[in-house]
Design brief:
40% of the residues lie in helices and 13% in strands. It contains 13 helices and eleven strands. The chain has an eight-stranded parallel β-sheet with strand order 1-9-8-6-5-4-3-2. The chain has a three-stranded antiparallel β-sheet with strand order 7-11-10, with no helix packed on it. It is globular, with a radius of gyration of 19 Å. Bound molecules: flavin mononucleotide. The site of flavin mononucleotide has 27 residues, from strand 9.
């Protein structure tokens, strides 16, 4: 490595977290098979499991699969849950009627989704003994943070604003992940009701966070090539977290219609939508996401009710490989993603970034 201060900072981060490349695979709930993390970790980066939808046994099995295939460099990740939402059956009926234009008739009970038990998921994460546990949508409770510290598990906390970053550091986070609004998937805002009003681009968010916290900062959102990595490191990041740019890799195993749409998407062809889950997230501007944004369309139900209501449509879409209805999360730099092996993506992006910082 050269002695460019940005590379020296990144090298320090790598040393602390046992990496060869300052690149974290983004935890992506529903799109993080062990195969993808194994490939990223073996290329020197950090693997990741978005465990939101996983039962405790599945979390432990994922960790042991990744350990069996790699050096065990990975993060386990959970959303911090909100209290159960208020239900409005009449509004849900209107959403169900709309969804019938896009898939099978939706039963009323489809909205009664019961997420896996958060406490049990937290226990499973600790039992799995990862080097890193990360959070999004809020902060872990104090007693859990204390238990992570006892076990020397490092806490990486996602923040979408400077005040969230400050709160994360105050609560004991070891690293802040600054998630810009370019990012694919759900917005990590602590308060979901404010997420759409507080859309901050990474170029503004990252240096502002770096200026106020003492812990290392990881940049996430739209980082998809060597230029993005070099820029993030110059803006003060110690590493980058990359999601969408890995979704076309064979190891990600996402439906081909979704992977192909990522490769074609211009930045203006993604959008923020609550129409899949009830929480705002960035997806390809598919026919369904665009129709759901029409002011005449019923407003999506809150999370996780909307996720339950759209389940049948999403399942049918995957079966039929139908991009119009697939929950096609993607960041604004989607079009830079290549369909190469994940290890090659890690190596190429990092070589390109280093060349720019020499
Ligand atoms: C399919 C998908 C699922 C995601 N799920 C999660 C998740 O479960 N937990 C989380 O912290 N972030 C999640 N994210 C956000 C990523 O951690 C990260 O912020 C984002 O991918 C970075 O932007 P990029 O996609 O432009 O690289 C998800 C992103 C995608 C694309």
């Amino acid at each position: 490595m050269s002695d460019h201060p940005a590379l020296v900072r990144a090298a320090g981060f790598c040393e602390t977290f046992n990496l060869r490349v300052p690149m974290l695979l983004a935890p992506m709930a529903g799109a993080c098979p062990a195969s993808l993390s194994i490939a990223v970790a073996n290329a020197g980066g950090l693997g990741a499991c978005g465990a939101l939808l996983m039962q405790p046994e599945a979390i432990k099995a994922w960790a042991s699969d990744v350990r069996a295939g790699s050096n065990g460099a990975f993060q386990l990740n959970l959303w911090i849950p909100d209290p159960p939402p208020k239900r409005n059956i009449a509004a849900e009926d209107a959403v169900r009627d709309f969804l019938h234009n896009w898939g099978p008739q939706v039963r009323r009970e489809a909205g009664d989704v019961k997420p896996p038990d958060f406490g049990a998921q937290c226990e499973a994460m600790l039992d799995a003994g990862p080097p890193i546990i990360s959070s999004i949508m809020g902060l872990y409770p104090e007693h859990f943070v204390a238990r992570m510290k006892v076990k020397s598990v490092k806490w990486f906390a996602t923040a979408t604003t400077v005040s969230e970053a400050r709160a994360a550091e105050d609560a004991g986070a070891d690293v802040v992940i600054a998630q810009g609004m370019e990012a694919g998937g759900h917005r990590g805002a602590f308060d979901a009701t404010k997420a759409e009003a507080r859309m901050i681009g990474l170029f503004s968010l990252l240096p502002a966070v770096v200026d106020v916290v003492k812990v290392p900062v990881v940049a996430a959102g739209g980082v998809a090539d060597g230029r993005g990595i070099a820029a993030a490191l110059l803006l003060g990041a110690s590493a980058v977290q990359v999601g969408t740019a890995f979704l076309r890799c064979p190891e990600a195993k996402v439906p081909s219609a979704w992977a192909d749409a990522i490769g074609r998407a211009l930045p203006e062809e993604t959008m923020i939508t609550r129409a899949f889950s009830g929480r705002p997230g960035r997806s390809i501007a598919t026919a369904y996401a665009r129709a759901a944004a029409d002011p005449a369309t019923p407003v999506p139900a809150p999370y996780p009710v909307q996720r339950g209501l759209t389940q049948a449509m999403r399942d049918a879409a995957i079966k039929e490989n139908d991009i119009d209805r697939i929950q096609a999360w993607a960041g604004q730099s989607a079009g830079m993603a290549t369909a190469n092996a994940a290890g090659d993506v890690v190596r190429r992006l990092w070589e390109d970034a280093q060349a720019l910082l020499r």
